[in-house]
Amino acid sequence: KAKEAGRNTSRFFCDALHAKASRQLQLENLLRKALEKNEFSLHYQPQYRMSCRNDVDRSGLMHECISNQMIGCEALLRWNNAELGNVSPAEFIPIAEATGMIESIGEWVIREVCTQVRQWQDAGVEPFRVAINLSPRQLFNPNFEVMVYRMLRESKLDPCWLEMEVTENILMLDIREATEKLNQLRNMGVKISVDDFGTGYSSLSYLKKLPIDSLKIDRSFVQDLERCPDSTAIVQAIISMAKQLKLSVIAEGVETEEQATFLAGNGCTDLQGYFFNRPLSAKAFTAYLMSSAEHQQDCCPSDILGF
Ligand code: C2E
Ligand code: MG
Ligand code: MG
Ligand code: MG
C-alpha cells in the first residue's frame, strides 16, 4: 500500500514537472514567432501626484482635500497569442530572459514607447514621463545605450520623458557594471527608478552611490498596509530614506482609498494602482489623455480623498 502511494506521489510530481516543462517549451516556441506575428502590445498605467489643498465646504468648514494630477505612466508588455490567449508577463518574461529573446522584445518595447510618445506629443498632449521595465540582459547588453540613444533620436524625443525601471537585484548582480550602464543612460537624460523596492537585496550603502532618481515601493508592502504593522513601518522607513537620499518615491499597487491616504499623509504623494486606473490599452489611454485635456482639469477619482 505504502509503496503504491509512494509510486503515485512520484508519478504525480513527474506529471506535474512534465506538464510544466512542456508548457515552458510551448511558450518558448510560440514566443520565438511573437514579434514577427505582431502579437505584442503595450498597456499604460497612469501615475498620479496627490496634492493637498484647503477647501471650504458649504457649512464653512475647512477641509484638507487631495487632488490628483497625472505625472506619468508605466508601459507594461502584453502578449496575445492565438493558441494561448493572453499570457501574463510574469510567465513569459522569465522565459524571454532565459532564452535571450528579451533583447529583441525589449528593443521592440522601447521603439514602441518612443513612437507612441512622439504621437502623443504631436497631438498636443502635455508631455509626461513614460517608464519602461528593464531586464538584466537588456541593461548589460554592450549595445544597449547606443540603441536607446538611436531610438530617442529617431523619434526626436527629449530623453527626460523616458524612465527605466530596474530591480535591486539587477543592480546587485554586478554593481560596477550596473553603475556604469545607468550613468550612461542618466548622462543622456533618461531617468532611473528602482522597481519593487524593498523586496530585493540592495545594500543601503550602495543605494547612496548608485545613479538613481527614484524608489518604487513594492506593492506587497502597500497591500499589507492595513493589516500588517511591519509593512507600515517598512513603508515609512522607505519614504524617509528616500527623502534623506534626495530620491523621489512612488508607491505601486495602490488599491484602496485608505492606502492612498496613508501614503500621501506619510509623504509619498506619487501613486500608481488599480484604485486610480488599471493598465489601459494604447487606444483607451489615448482616449483618456484626450478627454482629460478637453476638460482642462485633473483626472480620475479626484476630490474623493480627504484627511
Ligand atoms: P512591475 O514592473 O512591478 O509592474 C507592476 C505590475 O503590477 C503590473 O503587472 C501591473 O499590471 C500590476 N498592478 C498595477 N497596479 C496594481 C494594483 O493596484 N494591484 C495589483 N494587484 N497589481 C497591480 P503586469 O503588467 O502583469 O507585469 C508584471 C511584471 O512583468 C512587471 O512588474 C514587470 O516586472 C514585468 N514586465 C512587464 N512589462 C515588461 C517589459 O516590457 N519588459 C520587462 N523586462 N518586464 C516587464
Ligand atoms: Mg515596473
Ligand atoms: Mg513593481
Ligand atoms: Mg516586478
TrEMBL record:
Residues 24-293 form the EAL domain. This is Diguanylate cyclase. The chain holds residues 214 to 520 of 533 of the full protein.
